[in-house]
Backbone:
């Protein structure tokens, strides 16, 4: 895996960890605050959730990269995520897959 790919994966993992910590903090505030305490302990606003990626969106990006000459790399990435074609990849992996695909132009 290239350094850019490693960095993209690390950044994604950090973002996921930050979101999980924020969710845990919000849950603790809600669980252990009484109705009177909620005014004194401001709950942090959760960041707006990104819209879920759709198969069609990911397919469009992969098709563009394939036309740009990265077909072999895309096949390799699909296999990395345990599939021989995009429709068999778990949708929860779309974001990470796209992060790796986006750096293909930079890696060559």
Residues:
């Amino acid at each position: 895996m290239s350094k850019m790919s490693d960095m993209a994966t690390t950044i994604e993992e950090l973002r996921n960890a930050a979101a999980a910590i924020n969710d845990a903090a919000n849950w603790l505030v809600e669980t252990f605050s009484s109705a009177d305490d909620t005014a004194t302990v401001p709950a942090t606003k959760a960041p707006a959730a990104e819209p879920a990626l759709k198969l069609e969106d990911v397919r469009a990006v992969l098709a563009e990269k394939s036309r740009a000459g990265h077909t072999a790399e895309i096949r390799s990435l699909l296999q990395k995520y345990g599939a021989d074609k995009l429709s068999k990849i778990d949708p929860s992996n779309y974001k990470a897959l796209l992060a790796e695909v986006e750096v293909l132009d930079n890696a060559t």
User: Anything to note?
Assistant: The CA atoms of residues 17 and 23 lie 10 Å apart. The radius of gyration is 19 Å. The longest helix spans residues 3-32.
